[in-house]
Design brief:
Blueprint (H helix, E strand, L loop, with lengths): L23 E4 L7 H4 L2 H33 L11 H5 L17 E5 L3 H8 L5 E5 L8 H15 L4 E3 L5 E3 L7 E5 L6 E8 L5 E5 H19 L5 E4 L5 H18 L7 E6 L2 H4 L2 H7 L4 E6 L1 H12 L19 H16 L3 E6 L9 H21 L3 E4 L5 H12 L17 H4 L10 H19 L5 E3 L2 E3 L1 H16 L12 H14 L8 H13 L8 H9 L4
Parallel strand pairs: 2-3, 2-13, 3-6, 9-10, 10-11, 11-12, 12-13
Antiparallel strand pairs: 1-7, 4-5, 7-8, 14-15
Helix pairs in contact: 2-6, 2-7, 5-6, 7-9, 10-16, 12-13, 15-16, 15-17, 15-18, 16-18, 17-18
């Protein structure tokens, strides 16, 4: 009998075979008139390349954010990085600086990209227009694509608009502002554009790559031919690694379209607490493409609250109206920004005062002019090279303050601010010494709900109580309410700020607003409850609001 034998085990020496797919982009949103002018096969292929190369790194950077927020929440205050000290100590390197049309940025107007607002911005007389696809735009599919159409038409001198009342709008200015487009931040997705990677996994596209990619692909060559260039504001960055990711996106995109390296210019908003500790590193990583930094004041306040929301009473801020640019942590942050920028040849751009005029109320307009003039006088005196306004009537007010300091000079980069020394403790010195008032709590609930209602109807920048509100100011309002509840705060008169107390304010606000058929106040109140009264704290209120209400499903 022959003994049984066992066949020898085979070993595989090569890679394990996997199914691979060609990376693809699919448009899941509805195709309306003229959308095919933006969503061309060539543009879609470019988006697919961007996602293939950079989507995974984007996810890695978002994971870094979660880890960093967890560390701060557990008592590890941010510090200036030891591993990048050599970057800060090297006095030799400089950023690329202003591109053509960005030399003088003393007044920049901000706003969404619908046709009417685009025309108003281009006729405004500002030096720069921040064409905002981010916090001033509600990211409905319609706004995302039609904002691109507005920009395409404006850059080619083809944009006009007729309102429902028959009023015609056209670009009439002999000299229009330089356009600096702001794509959505790394954390936001575009659910109407789906990316399938090489493994066959399908996911929502990156809002950042969609906004940047479509604008750059369609307009870069025309902007360069017109003597300007493809310029961008970069929102919500939290680290130099995120800046490096953008820099690599820029370099690849320039190569892909045959544009000289360094043609793109970016201005980074320093509007998160972690980014304030990496200003020089962010400039360094973007140095071939960088024009400057901006002091994004409202998101910066929100970032402070978000990161320190669970760290105890000493990190609780008072009424939003009391958190001014002269409180300790805001003063330290802006002084450091100007010094850092000018050390590296970068423009320092100031932030936006929320006060806006009311042409039907002279007293409100006079107060807005006074507040904005004081704000811009402080910025110009501190060394900023330019500033933001949100309304055309504020441009002469802001310009006067910067003209008084700059004169005929395009900037004040020569003002180096050697006297400024800011340490880590100063950047988180949030002691203000003012109370939380019942009026302040009510104002936060009212502003957040009214803003969310407009946002759900497709409006991203909204005038409320003579202030310009956008997603950043709404974030402050809801995050303060969340923190006050979880830190057992009371109002000035001793009333505990509880969920029940805020629920009463929600009902009060719903009774105060003018209701009409088709309004979104009930949905807005529902979102507010989720992001302000829930046990968990959503990183951004726009994330649940977008997924619940703005994603087209038909």
């Amino acid at each position: 009998m022959t003994p049984a034998t066992t066949a020898p085990m085979r070993t595989r020496t090569g890679p394990i075979p996997t199914w691979t797919h060609e990376p693809t982009i699919e448009i899941a949103g509805r195709m309306r008139p003229r959308y095919d002018e933006i969503l061309t096969p060539e543009a879609i292929a470019f988006l697919a390349e961007l996602h293939h190369r950079f989507a995974a790194r984007r996810h890695d950077r978002l994971a870094d954010r979660l880890r960093r927020r967890f560390e701060i929440g557990n008592g590890h205050d941010p510090q200036f990085r030891h591993d990048t000290r050599h970057v800060r100590d090297d006095a030799e390197w400089q950023v690329a600086g202003a591109g053509p049309g960005l030399e003088d940025r003393r007044v920049e107007i901000t706003g969404p990209t619908d046709p009417k607002m685009t025309i108003n911005a281009l006729n405004s007389g500002a030096k720069v227009w921040l064409a905002d696809q981010e916090d001033a735009t509600s990211p409905t599919w319609k706004n995302v694509v039609e904002g691109q159409l507005s920009l395409r038409d404006a850059i080619r001198g083809e944009l006009s608009f007729t309102s429902a009342e028959g009023k015609e709008y056209r670009v009439t200015a002999s000299e229009t502002p330089t356009i600096v487009m702001r794509p959505r931040g790394w954390h936001l997705t575009e659910e109407h554009v789906r990316f399938t990677d090489r493994t066959g996994r399908t996911m929502a596209a990156s809002g950042s790559l969609v906004d940047f990619g479509l604008y750059f692909f369609h307009n870069a060559a025309r902007l360069i031919a017109d003597g300007r260039g493809p310029y961008f504001y970069l929102a919500k960055l939290e680290s130099s690694e995120e800046a490096k990711l953008w820099d690599d996106v820029f370099t690849f995109s320039e190569q892909r379209l045959g544009i000289p390296h360094g043609t793109i210019r970016a201005t980074v908003l320093i509007e998160t607490l972690p980014a304030a500790f990496e200003m020089e590193e962010i400039l360094f990583e973007l140095r071939d493409h960088c024009a400057g930094l901006n002091a994004g004041r409202w998101d910066y306040i929100f970032s402070i609250i978000k990161n320190y929301r669970g760290r105890g009473a000493r990190f609780v801020l008072p009424d939003r109206s009391e958190v001014t640019m002269t409180v300790p942590f805001m003063r330290a942050y802006t002084e450091l920004l100007v010094k850092t920028c000018h050390k590296r040849g970068a423009h320092a751009i100031g932030g936006m005062s929320a006060f806006i005029p009311n042409r039907r109320d002279p007293a409100v307009t006079e107060r807005a002019f006074e507040k904005v003039a004081a704000d811009k006088k402080r910025e110009a005196g501190d060394g900023f090279d330019g500033t933001w306004v949100a309304h055309p009537d504020l441009i002469p007010v802001a310009r006067a303050e910067f003209d008084a300091v700059l004169g005929d000079r395009p900037n004040q980069l020569d003002r180096q601010r050697p006297e400024v020394e800011v340490d880590a403790a100063q950047l988180i010195d949030v002691h203000i010494g003012r109370p939380i008032t019942a009026a302040g709590v009510h104002a936060n609930v009212s502003v957040a709900i009214r803003y969310l209602e407009a946002w759900l109807r497709g409006l991203g920048a909204v005038a409320i109580d003579n202030l310009m509100e956008d997603a950043a100011t709404a974030e402050i309002s809801r995050s303060q309410v969340w923190q006050w509840i979880h830190q057992d705060r009371t109002t000035e008169d001793g009333t505990p700020i509880t969920r029940g107390y805020v629920e009463g304010l929600i009902e009060r606000v719903l009774g105060e607003v003018d209701r009409r058929d088709g309004d979104r106040f009930d949905d807005a109140a529902s979102v507010f409850r989720e992001v302000a009264l829930g046990q968990d704290f959503p990183a951004f209120l726009t994330l649940p609001a977008y997924s619940r209400f703005l994603v087209e499903t038909d």
